[in-house]
Every structure is written in structure tokens, then in C-alpha cells.
Specification:
With 147 residues, this protein is mainly α. Among the domains are: 43 residues, no CATH class; 57 residues, no CATH class. Helices cover 64% and strands 0% of the residues. It has eight helices and no strands. α6 crosses α8 and α7 packs antiparallel against α8.
């Protein structure tokens, strides 16, 4: 079936469905979004590629807004602001600091989490997060400053 024909069928079924009797398209979409693994690394860059390769980037922006409630340009500005280093020059950070920063953000660690981890490593020689194992205390403290 062609996509437009499928959309028409969904619309027809929805118009004939009493409220609350059967799942509607919004509920099904919501369930799919809840079940989808959007926490994997790289999804943002996948969206960027879809946008760059789209014949209609405005539609991509509208779709992004529907899913997030945030304008696409505002999201991009947030990305620039929140992923910039305090010095404003990412090249000034050593590779190990950038790697640890990426891991910490992926794990949603806060400044306090990182400082606690650094203290535990320093005092006990133990890591709470295996992904950060091997990173020096000074690197974790530098990353904490960036948070």
C-alpha cells in the first residue's frame, strides 16, 4: 500500500472510532516513542543528516517541533551553548577530557556526581561508573568544571 493510502485508512478508522474504545494513532505513536531507544549516541547527527539531505527541510523542522515542542533552530542553539567549553575553544581541551566529557554527558552525570567520583577514586581507588574507569582524577575534575 502507498503511504498516502495508509494515512487515509488511518484517518477513516479514527473518524469511525468512539473515544476511549480503541487505541488511536496518537496513543500508538506515543507508545512507540516510549519504547524507542532514543538514548543511543548519534541520534542528533542522524537527524542533522536527514535535514541536510531533505528536499523539504521545513517539513523536517515541523516534524522536529511536533516531537519535541522546541523549534529546530532553538535546539541547535542549545546544542552550541551547552556543548561549548568554558574557554570557548574546544581545541584547547585534551582528547582525554573530551572523551570523559562525552561519557559523562551520555550518563547524565552532574558536576557533583563527577566530583564525588573523583573523590572516591582518590580515596578508595574505585570507580562508580565503569565507563569512566581509567580516567585520572584531574581529568574528572576538569570535566566537572565544564558541567
Amino acid at each position: 500500500m502507498k503511504t498516502l493510502k495508509l494515512i487515509k485508512e488511518v484517518e477513516d478508522v479514527f473518524s469511525q472510532t468512539p473515544d476511549g474504545k480503541i487505541q488511536d494513532a496518537d496513543t500508538i505513536l506515543s507508545d512507540l516513542l516510549e519504547k524507542s531507544d532514543t538514548n543511543f549516541s548519534g541520534i542528533a547527527f542522524d537527524i542533522f543528516e536527514i535535514y541536510k539531505n531533505s528536499k523539504d527541510p521545513d517539513c523536517v523542522e515541523k516534524m522536529f517541533y511536533e516531537f519535541t515542542g522546541v523549534e529546530f533552530d532553538e535546539y541547535l542553539k542549545m546544542c552550541i551553548k551547552k556543548t561549548s567549553t568554558p574557554e570557548g575553544d574546544i581545541k584547547s581541551c585534551p582528547r582525554e577530557v573530551l572523551e570523559a566529557y562525552r561519557i559523562a554527558t551520555k550518563l547524565n552525570l552532574t558536576k557533583d556526581n563527577l566530583l564525588m567520583e573523583a573523590e572516591l577514586i582518590e580515596n578508595e581507588g574505585e570507580w562508580l561508573h565503569m565507563s569512566l574507569m581509567g580516567y585520572d582524577v584531574s581529568i574528572l575534575r576538569k570535566v566537572a568544571e565544564m558541567m
